[in-house]
Amino acid sequence: MTAPIPRDIPDLPAIPGMPKPLSSSVPAAAVLTPARRPFAAAFHLLTALLAVTGVTIALLLGSPLRVLGHFTIQSTILLALVLTLSARRAWTARRPLPAPLTGAALLYVLTAALLHHLLPADAAILSSPAGGAAAVPRATADHLLHTAVPIAAALDWLLLTAPGRLRPRHAAPWLLFPLIHLAISSLTRSETLVTGTAVRHLLPSLDIARHGYREALGTALLLALSLCALAVLLVGLDRARPDPTRRRPKTGFRLQPPVG
Length: 260
Fold this sequence. Notes:
By secondary structure, the chain is mostly helical. The chain has one domain. Helices cover 60% and strands 0% of the residues. The protein is built from eleven helices and no strands. It has helices spanning 28-31, 38-61, 64-68, 71-91, 99-118, 120-123, 135-160, 171-174, 176-187, 192-195, 208-240. Helix 4 (71-91) packs antiparallel against helix 5 (99-118). The longest helix has 33 residues, at 208-240. The two termini are 28 Å apart.
């Protein structure tokens, strides 16, 4: 009679001088073929079209140079470019864009939206009167730029991107662009002192000629701290949210050792 085959092979003693075996864990990306994501591509593209529509209406209703100087317009254009590239990559089954890039685009549009709803006088892009034929297009542009596009961008990020890819070190580079824009706005005096015309300051609460250096710089510091807090909150949310894009790998071998 033959001896029964043991279920578990006993541990063998380690051989001196032999290198340690490599880890047996295999990432799913190494065994899964890239797949097209048509729904994600369609949602990316739809959000980009909303952003382009809002920017186009604002450019048609106001002075193009002045409209392009607003942080809201600049951040919305960046979001449209990022989402267009993301749609192309999702449609062609390519790797998604780097998480710091998509996170920066989301941070900027959320910052512009919060500034609009908390400080409406500062975030107003179009200075045309409320009445008249331009009232409806102006309201449409404001709604698209400050409500519809930020909500769509947040849903796109929450539902169609993999979590856990942002790190606290990413927050510092994100802050360069808005802080530079904030510094330029806070150090620029109102054009009324130079030309004598009633030209509106980009950020009225940071108008040094109207509020003085102390109040304008205090407001700028408060906005900068709020932006830093929002960036850290975005990184923390990315680390805590579930993964909506995770798929179970369908392979012919096990990626993990059996239990029991």
